[in-house]
Design a protein that fits this description.
By secondary structure, the chain is mainly beta. 5% of the residues lie in helices and 41% in strands. It has two domains: 165 residues, no CATH class; 214 residues, no CATH class. It has three helices and 27 strands. The strands form six sheets. Strands 18, 19, 20, 21, 22 and 26 form a six-stranded mixed sheet that branches. A five-stranded antiparallel sheet has the order 1-5-6-7-8, with no helix packed on it. It has a five-stranded mixed sheet with strand order 13-17-16-15-14, with no helix packed on it. The longest helix is centred in the middle third of the chain and has 9 residues. The radius of gyration is 20 Å and the shape is globular.
């Protein structure tokens, strides 16, 4: 444990057994706010839309955090994200990767690292505290939090150690795609589906073709990891999206299931990244027999405009809606639930604009309907 970890109060109660699978956890919906003292972070419960305030861990700023797919034996979720600021009882600022219990904000692990997250981590499959994340150098990093390893079953410890999966590792990129330079990863999500295996959906910045003179731009692609989780061994572009996304900045990919058992890909896109103006898109996604991803023609739908990249499209309301954040003059902007397009086949066959016009309502902790706006900047949205 580092001196800084001790300084911010990493808890001895971090020694807990591996997690227990649980329903969808809460979604972080408040951006980083550099204030003194640090305000709480706001989380939306995916099943009810209720907003919960979590106290600032160690008096520091938490952002780019995601919730575990399991709970510990105390019934608490865990979140992993970027923790920064000056902790209590210290005069030195710090930034690193932290594991924190939800909703009480107890710090379980804190690792100071030069490979600081620049997008939200994804939890690796299994009940152990392991995540994959993107750092500022464009690399993918795997991190195992081992503060609780003394309580892990011996078989889990042996498997992790024998496979060399402990600590932190920058993944090698062994795939021939993209051509030329090694890809710079900007953002990603993890698709977990037994039909296709574990697949990453990434936004990368790379050359758009095989020639050195080809322009560099953002691309949506898929990737598979080695069984040892130490390298990308296969990857490729998501076929059918090139025309719709060429020359545009892309961020925040998210994958969910449609009511007919298919998959959809949601992402943010803009041709004016400096001015914001990010659009929320969704498109049906399928996989060829070779395992390569492609979109279903004619299903690309623009759902909302003026979105923020801080909040990736997040599933809510049983998979029927997506959370989106629209910047306003208020501190946190406003959160909107946007309904996914539906017809008797499970998806609109024609592309178009299908965002729901939001209606204002008093912020309450009850279930949110599609299109309801939460005025997150008001303290009345925080319910403990």
């Amino acid at each position: 444990m580092s001196a800084m970890a001790a300084c911010i109060g990493t808890s001895s109660s971090a020694s807990r057994r591996p997690g227990i699978a649980a329903a969808t956890g809460p979604v972080l919906v408040s951006p980083a706010r550099k204030r003194t003292p640090c305000p709480p972070t706001l989380w939306a419960e995916a099943d009810t839309g209720r907003i919960v305030a979590m106290p600032p861990p160690g008096g520091m700023d938490l952002d780019l955090a995601t919730c575990s797919p399991w709970v510990d034996e105390l019934g608490r979720f865990q979140v992993v994200g970027r923790l920064s600021g000056t902790p209590a009882n210290s005069s030195r600022g710090s930034v690193g990767l932290a594991r924190i219990s939800y909703p009480d904000g107890e710090i379980l692990d804190f690792i100071e690292t030069e490979a600081v997250p620049t997008s939200r981590p994804c939890w690796l499959p299994g009940p152990l505290p392991r995540v994959l994340y993107v750092a500022g150098d464009g690399g993918l990093y795997r991190r195992l939090f081992d503060g609780a390893r003394s309580k892990w079953p011996a078989s889990d410890r042996d498997e992790i150690d024998n496979a060399g999966r402990s600590g932190q590792k920058r993944l090698d990129w062994r795939s021939p795609f993209p051509p030329g330079d090694v890809a710079m990863v900007l953002d990603f999500t993890w698709l977990r589906d037994a039909r296709f295996g574990d697949i990453l959906i990434l936004v990368i910045k790379a050359r758009m073709g095989p020639e050195p003179s080809d322009p560099v731009g953002d691309q949506l692609c898929w990737a598979r990891l080695a069984e040892t989780e130490d390298a990308v061994i296969d990857s490729g572009p998501i076929s059918g999206l090139q025309d719709a996304t060429s020359g545009r900045s892309l961020r925040a990919p998210s994958v969910g299931r449609t009511e007919d058992g298919g998959l959809f890909l949601a992402y943010l896109s803009t041709d004016r990244p400096a001015a914001g103006g990010w659009e929320l898109h969704a498109v049906r996604l399928s996989f060829e027999g070779s395992g390569r991803a492609r979109i279903v023609a004619g299903t690309d739908v623009r759902l909302a405009e003026r979105c923020s990249t801080y909040l990736p499209p997040a599933l809510a309301a049983g998979g029927e809606c997506l959370w989106a954040c629209q910047p306003t003059d208020a501190d946190l902007g406003r959160l909107v639930l946007v309904a996914l397009p539906r017809d008797h086949r499970g998806w609109l066959r024609l592309a178009g604009d299908h965002g729901i016009e939001p209606r204002r309502s008093s912020p309450r902790g009850d279930r949110l309907l599609p299109g309801r706006i939460i005025e997150s900047g008001r303290s009345s949205t925080c319910r403990n």
